[in-house]
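ARCHIVE CARD
Drawer: 12
Card no.: 0347
Subject: one protein chain, sequence and derived structure
Cross-reference: see card 0346
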Amino acid sequence: MNIVILSRNKELYSTRRLVEAAKQRHHDVSVINHAKCYMAIEPHNPAVYLGDHEINDVDAIIPRIGASVTFYGSSIIRQFEMQKVFTTTSSLALLRSRDKLRSLQILSKSGVGIPHTAFAKYPSDIKNLVKQVGGAPLVIKLLQSTQGKGVVLAETTKAAISVIEAFYGLEANIIIQEFIKEAKAEDIRAFVIDGKVVGAMKRTGSKDDFRSNLHKGGTAEAIKLSRSEKSMALKAARALGLNIAGVDMLRSARGPLVIEVNSSPGLEGIETTTGIDIAAQIIKYVEQNIGSSDRKQRDKIGV
């Protein structure tokens, strides 16, 4: 089987592990920088090129698309989809998951538990906006933020109003969410592959930081999810049409709440923490689903 990994950096841990896992299972595998590819859009002949070389005879692609090139990366995926090439992440699912507001709207529509959230462009009364999420303390997030960047905790209403006004003054798109105090700077990452949770870890933020990102100095430990947490993770991935996903949740007094669903979840943290060979499970998933690109996508939400 010929597998192509779409990644801009073949030295990244996740990319290297996927290459290793594919080779161990005796597949041909290559890493292609999707940002350097281009498309020839012709009737009945959709093609993807790298330089003067057409990328063909591909059985499956594994997209590892960075947030900064989401639009172009999704276009490359779509071109392969038009060729009936199997992809572990569809172009539509990628776009949904990367749009924080859109993904929260879809999750909410699907009955997935999420923190109380508000969004406005130029609210006439910021105090009422703050009330919609339960008042201060609250969390303010840039819609384009990743890995905890562009996320602010406002501990008082006065501070919240000041930060919100500053972001609006910069014409930045933000969402406002309730602060889940009982989470205690901890969150859960559930790794989902093909409708199953294959590994989970609890991440704890560094001292004096409410964010639990490992990139920010946090720590992680392997955990076993409760039935409700596992069900919520699967429901969230399914709602966004993601067959591979990292679902981030908070443990709240009213049950698990999904804060984000990552369509290109990193493998280093989850593999190192749990000892589970996630890369091999992704390759097995590809093996089991070759040819499924001809089937109707499991995608029923037209938003």
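Annotation on reverse: The first helix runs from residue 13 to 24. Confidence is low (pLDDT under 50) at residues 293-303.
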